[in-house]
Amino acid sequence: MKIVIGTDHGGFKLKEILVKFLKKKGHSVKDFGTYSDEPCDYPIIGYEVARAVGKKKFSRGILICKTGVGMSMVANKARGVRAALCDRVDIARSSREHNDANVLVLAANIVSIEKAKKIASVWLSSRSLGGRHKRRADQIKKIDK
After folding, report:
1. Going from the N-terminus, what domains does the chain have, and what CATH number goes with each?
2. Is the pLDDT reported for residue 7 higher than 90?
3. CA-based torsion, 126, 130, 133, 138: positive or negative
4. If we measure between CA atoms, which residue out of 136, 60, 138 comes closest to residue 105?
5. Structure confidence by residue, pLDDT tens digits, 64-122
6. Residue 51: CB partners within 8 Å, gap ≥ 6?
7. Which residue has the higher pLDDT, 128 or 88?
8. How many helices and strands, by DSSP H and E, does the chain display?
9. In the chain, where does DSSP find H-type helix?
């Protein structure tokens, strides 16, 4: 799967680990930064990642910051994006099955490295269930236009 990933300085270490983990699992990963733990502004990186997913240049996106809140806010500004902040595996699965989320947001200060790997794995392998869930996801898409 083609995945784009981005972070601010607060999630830099987790991003570096996840990029290696995802590539090892066979995914194609494009890293939009940041490339160090030096302070940076998250909105530009978050929006670029989200916009790339919204324009369907990548199948899915992953964003990371300390709490996940800022990245969630900025990602959901991009047309065609349904970003979900997930700190548990069941929420990650549900965000895909029920909401057809296409951007996963992780909170580096809340999830451990191992938990982040589990969340990402489940999120990437889960599919939309369709049915009533598709109808609701389509309503979100309609609002987006």
Report:
1. 2-144 (3.40.1400.10)
2. yes
3. positive
4. 60
5. 999 999 999 999 999 999 999 999 999 999 999 999 999 999 999 999 999 999 999 99
6. 78, 81
7. 88
8. 6, 5
9. 12-24, 42-54, 69-75, 89-97, 113-125, 132-144
Beta strand pairing call for 60-65 and 103-107 = parallel
Tokens 């489940």 appear where?
122
How far from chain centre, in Å, is Cα 72?
Answer: 9
- pLDDT bin (cut points 50, 70, 90) of residue 125 is very high
Tokens of 8: 């601010």
Say what the pTM is.
0.94
Query: DSSP label at 84?
Result: E
User: What distance in Å separates the CA atoms of residue 106 and residue 111, rounded to the nearest whole number?
Assistant: 7
Beta bridge partners of 5: 31, 62
Residues catalogued as catalytic: 65, 98
Give the full edge-to-edge strand order of the sheet including 2-7: 28-31, 2-7, 60-65, 103-107, 83-85
